[in-house]
Each structure stands twice: as structure tokens, then as C-alpha cells.
Design a protein that fits this description.
This protein has 128 residues and is mainly alpha-helical. It is built from 7 helices and no strands.
């Protein structure tokens, strides 16, 4: 599915995480039925569950340089928020409850990620 959409949630660095929703969410709009099916069908949930461990490792590695001064509990919270905000679930909620387009949802999620990361790791984020 990632290949079909030209989107992949495989961040290499913190910039990929911050900017990722802006790139991915408009693509989700173009494949809305498939994205929603992946969120709400047993097959989709199984597919997503199968990717969780590798996704956690990718996010942890990408975020590690800017979270190194935080406690393990704080790191877990920030990583969890990054997963949430850079996800199809966030796209769906921002569209359905926020009334945003995919592009607007991507901007909102990227802004939230930048805000959170700037608060916990001031001065260590790349400029976006």
C-alpha cells in the first residue's frame, strides 16, 4: 500500500518525522478508501500490527538525538505522541472531527510535532 501511494512511514531522522505528515496526509486523501479500510478492517489492523515493532525502532532511532537528555519515561511519551501524530489515525481524526483536508491535517500534525519536540529539546531541531 505504501508503494501504491508513494508514502512510507520510515523516518531516518527527526526532520522526517516532523515533515512526514505534510507529505503523507495529502496522499492519504488520494487513497481514502484504502486508508480507511486499513484502519477499520481486520486485515488492515493485522497489517498495521505486523509493522509496529519495526516502526517503533525507526521512530526511536530518528528521535534519539533530540531526546537524549530526557528520562526514559519522557522519551516513551514523546515517541508515542510522534507515532500518533504521524499516523493514518491522526489523518482520519483531523479530517472527520477537525474538518481539515489532508494537506491541512498534515500541516497541523507537523506543527504539533515541531511544537512538542521544540518544547522537550529546544535548540536541537532542524529548521523546517
Amino acid at each position: 500500500m505504501d508503494e501504491l501511494m508513494g508514502a512510507s512511514i520510515a523516518p531516518e531522522d527527526v526532520g522526517d518525522i516532523v515533515n512526514g505528515p505534510q507529505q503523507a496526509f495529502p496522499r492519504f486523501d488520494a487513497h481514502e478508501a484504502a486508508i480507511r479500510a486499513s484502519l477499520h478492517s481486520r486485515t488492515g489492523r493485522d497489517m498495521r500490527t505486523g509493522m509496529v515493532a519495526s516502526r517503533r525502532l525507526r521512530f526511536a532511532g530518528a528521535l534519539a538525538p533530540v531526546l537524549s537528555d530526557l528520562s526514559p519515561a519522557e522519551v516513551r511519551r514523546v515517541e508515542a505522541l510522534a507515532h500518533l501524530l504521524y499516523s493514518a489515525s491522526a489523518w482520519e481524526v483531523l479530517k472527520d472531527y477537525g474538518g481539515l483536508t489532508g494537506a491541512q491535517a498534515g500541516e497541523a500534525a507537523s506543527w504539533a510535532l515541531n511544537t512538542i519536540l521544540s518544547a522537550v529539546a529546544p535548540g536541537s531541531l532542524p529548521r523546517t
